[in-house]
Amino acid sequence: MTDQSLKNRGFWFSEWAFPVFVATLCSGIFAGTHMYFVYHVGAFNDIAIVAMLEAGIKGGSYGAAAAFGASFLFARVLEGPLVGILDIGGALQTGIGIGVPAMLLGAGITAPLENFTLSLLVGALLGLLIGVVIIMIRRYTVAGSTSTFGADVMMGAGNAAGRYLGPLIVITAIMASIPVGIGATVGAAFFYAYKKPIAGGAIIGAMIMGAIFPILLK
Question: CB-side exposure of 138: number of CA atoms within 13 Å?
């Protein structure tokens, strides 16, 4: 089917329908994170990824969740227009659902996650922005050239960046206390065996052992 025939089929086959679809998805995903932040249920993501945000909510440090989510979002937004596929799990669920909320909370901005209506609006605006950026990148790169613009290198960049967080979390847990460090190590090893992000396993393991052997604050 030619590009001209697609254009003749109306809005649903037009390229500008894409930002609307992304805005709708992001609105629901961000609102799901609001539900989790307020009611501790409703986040649209893997348990291991949500555990990073939960660790920040309980401990006040959102660095791991923000870095992990932002790396996925950045990589997938660049990857999307080059390969023609937007990874909903990496770009939207992880990036918009975990990374952006973690960055907002780390900056002390809580209103978008405390108010349901505002969460829908913020998510929709973020999704609309992502959709427009992807369309513009595609229009001025791939659409006008036969080059892949390094898409083969960009594929999986978010995964590669996220792998470095696991060992850092384990080291930090060991520095906190021996039981917490053991929990983080066992959790990371368990997730690694099942080919899951070891950062999530390290956080879950550290949280479990931290609950059994709490760290006394001086």
Answer: 19
Residue 9: CA count within 13 A, CB half-sphere: 11
Q: In which element (H, E) is residue 126 found?
A: helix 116-140
* pLDDT tens-digit series, residues 41-98: 888 888 778 888 888 888 888 887 888 888 888 877 877 777 777 878 878 899 999 9
Question: 10 Å Cβ neighbour count for 2?
Answer: 7
Distances (CA, A) of 118 to 85, 88, 114: 29, 22, 8
Please give the structure tokens belonging to residue 131.
């959709």
Torsion of CA 108, 114, 120, 123, to 10 degrees: 20
Burial state string for 144-181 with b = 16 or more CB within 10 A and e = fewer than 16: eeeeeeebeebbebbeebbeebbeebbebbeeebebbb
Half-sphere exposure of 162 (CA within 13 A, CB side): 28
Give the integer Cα–Cα distance in Å for 186 and 196.
13
